[in-house]
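Supplementary material to the annual report.
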Amino acid sequence: MAERMQLCNLSENNFEQCTKCSICTTVCPVAAVTTDYPGPKQAGPDGERYRLKDPAYYDKMLKLCLNCKRCEVACPSGVHIADIIQRARMRASEGKRASLRDTLLANTDLLGTMANMVAPVANAALGLKPTKLVMHSVMDIDKHRTFPAYSRTKFETWFKRHAAATQDAYPNHVSYFHGCYVNYNFPKLGQDLVKLMNAAGYGVHLLGKEQCCGVALIANGLYKQARRQGNVNAASIRQAVNDKRHMVLTTSSSCTFNLRDEYPAMLDIDTSDVRDSIMLATRFIYNLVDEEKIKLVFKQNYKRRIAYHTACHMQRMGWQLYSIELLRMIPGLDLQVLEQECCGISGTYGFKKENYERSQAIGSILFKSIEEARVEAVATDCETCKWQIEMSTGLPVENPVSILADALDVEATRQANGLK
Amino acid sequence: MRMDTVIIGGGLSGLTCGIALAKRGQRVAIVASGQSTLMFNGGSMELLGSIGGKTVTSPLEAIATLPQSHPYSKIGAGNIAALAASAKELLADAGINMEGNTSANHWRITPMGVAKPAWLTLSDHLRIDNLDNLPAKRVALMCIRGFFDEPNGMLAQGLRDLGFEVKAIEFTTDDITTLRRSPSEMRASSLAKHLGSNNALQRVADQINALAGDADIVLLPSVLGQNDDNDFQSLQAMARKPLRLVATLPPAVAGMRMQTQLRHYFKMLGGNYLMGDTAVSGAFDGDRLTSITTAKLGDMPLKADQFVLATGSFISRGLVADYERVYEPVLGLDVDADADREQWTRFNILEPQAYMGYGVATDGNLRCSKQGTTIQNLHAIGSVLSGHDAVKMGDGTGVSMLTALAAAQSILA
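Predicted assembly:
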């Protein structure tokens, strides 16, 4: 009885569990580089006590939080520190409009659709010095940043033209939540996934209707739109899982984390019924290999030295193990696993002029460790980490799925899995 | 996913065991539910500091007198010296330079200025071998203005009580003053991060050189080097007096440094460290544990031949007490604890508390049991073990490291 009484006294964010040990603050990448941010303990559980008394205690410096979730990973007491901070930001933004800059940055799919139509022009224009200076001074988008190049053909278009027709012939099937980055900027990653899954005997299918997962919308305070799009995605995922009995695979750690954990935590969209069916492709593939349901055969002459960077949201999900162990299966791949550090970009955060220097200061520890690893490329499951690391180290950054697809002996793998 | 050994718990004992196994070529995964209490460690390891309220000077001799229920007795009092030697070696391999030996305790200084017996102390931290023959007479205690984590007055008084002539000198630098803009976070770790960058160390050295006067030795709060002792070495090279660090209140930079170096070494040996994941249950087949399920790996359990429970005591939730009982929350293992709740605590918190001796029950080989059946492939190590009181006996870190190595030996045998 007494035990149950205590449970009734727990808040949704369980901030009462905080023992004030301050460990979260020691791992906060923002507090490490600026005194303007009070650190996760103060911004989270400590501040929440005051805010419950009076919302006027809200500290506007909470906007500096990256929502990287490293505080939650480090917390020995399981407090949802970053969720507390994000919820506080959400309450404080009620009734306020996001700026044009933030709205544009957050609408990755709108931006993508427009840019795809005029990709060569857009890429050229976005790369031009005058454009960058205008964006820097008028839009507050930092001039050092280069927008990821837009692809001329959307992934969805490529898929319909070149892949859709052959997918039904495979013995097994999965659905794919490709995300904005694959669709508008880098269809090759989606093509690599199709190549890999097909060789393993799995047909790949698009969802009935996919919209941007909304990770950038949440970060920029566009909660209503995020919830609207989230509901569309949740319905499409349910259709794939319940009607088609498909697993829904992804190739972006942040999209995955958003669909599985931020939908319920931030947007009150309950996805618990399908949560276990949404997963990164590397987790799905690792498990198939582990259970000897498929075989992967790799090229004989493949030889590369690559460093693996665990994206913050990847670590929050706890799934880096699958990507790392899959990559370790490739003979000839010398894999260096880096200490987990934040790269500093955090989606759209680092694109904003006011955050540029902080973003680079945060990432400096990671960039140094990459330099010291003496590798020819970096592997990571997050596309925004990719942009940041490529810009800051000059090394190419690839998704583990692309590395696997590249190292795969497709013909031998098809044969090993009983395909013609 | 299959491993040779899965270790539940990523603190000092889990990492020690993981390193010993990975070094011998085992495929090891450590499931770490957040950071561990190693983050609270001020830079020393202890073997045995006190028995029945009496200070221990020769730990090896004292260990031989411990009851059979104590973890040291289970791993064999005769094996302690050899295990302690390999523990020291393992720390050195991880880049953690510590000094001390098993034949005689030395003294570490707490942030409150109290001398406590210790086995090993980081070589850049203050260590006193003999209280009757202090390593220095005149001490300059450098106190950083606005710093939260060092009660300077108590520390200075404690050092004076030991016989030092102490001059407490408050100082700051321009950039440390800037750090104070965040008043709630003027903590040891923030300072360590800051002093590790730019030319901040030179400015601290300038202050020390200007203010230390005729001191024989300069003491500075332990705010240098979250990842290694390079910053200390740099500062020592710039300072004109011998320099030593003194422990601060937690989270302590020294503990963070040891945690980071051990984890880094474990990963370098090919170990998988699952940070921020929690073991939630296990599957048994008769008297064997076959797999554990974690919160994040979900429906893909971790399978292994051998398992190690290194989940820590109550503070780390390796043990849980509710209104009715004390239990082990992950696997529901048998525990040594009083059934009568009245017996758990004493009103005077300074007296020995019975609950501090509670823990999972193990056989002479550190193997756990469930409903009376010994689980053949499950060892328990560290603070989750019953039969010792880390607070009153000063044996916590020693039990963690030595039982970890003993379990590793047993697994590899």
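Residues 304-407 of chain A form a domain with the Rossmann fold fold (CATH 3.40.50).
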